[in-house]
Structure formats: structure tokens, C-alpha cells
Backbone:
């Protein structure tokens, strides 16, 4: 969703200033992060039918360090 649509929706719904800041800030954090939740980061073949993959499960912003971090989970996928 583009930033223009987000701001237009906030104007039409008469949102307060805090809501504007939250929506615009979250939009730029999502855009600045290089991964998305559910994205496969690493893949390793186990056998012909299965793969062991690392999947992004969460993205966090640390205000103290001014850094975006993520957590991963190992899963097995079948074809």
C-alpha cells in the first residue's frame, strides 16, 4: 500500500496526529527493512522431497541502538 493511500485514508477518517505519525513511521520502517516476515532466508536440501529452510518470523526495531533486527525459525518444507 502506498503512502499516499495511507495518508488519504487517515484524512478521510479524521485521525489524530498520533495516528498519522504511527502509520507513516511504520510505513518507512517496513520499506527500510531488507526482509519481510515469512521470507525464506536460507535453504538446504535434505533429500529429494524435503528442504530445511530458515524463515523470518519477526522483525523488531530497537530505539536505543537505532537498529532493525529479525528472528528466524528453522522449518522443513516438502514439495
Residues:
Amino acid at each position: 500500500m502506498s503512502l499516499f493511500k495511507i495518508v488519504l485514508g487517515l484524512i478521510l477518517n479524521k485521525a489524530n496526529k498520533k495516528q498519522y505519525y504511527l502509520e507513516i513511521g511504520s510505513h518507512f520502517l517496513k520499506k527500510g527493512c531488507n526482509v519481510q516476515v515469512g521470507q525464506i532466508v536460507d535453504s538446504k536440501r535434505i533429500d529429494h522431497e524435503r528442504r530445511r529452510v530458515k524463515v523470518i518470523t519477526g522483525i523488531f526495531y530497537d530505539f536505543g541502538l537505532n537498529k532493525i533486527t529479525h528472528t528466524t525459525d528453522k522449518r522443513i518444507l516438502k514439495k
Remarks:
- The helical segments are 3-12, 17-32.
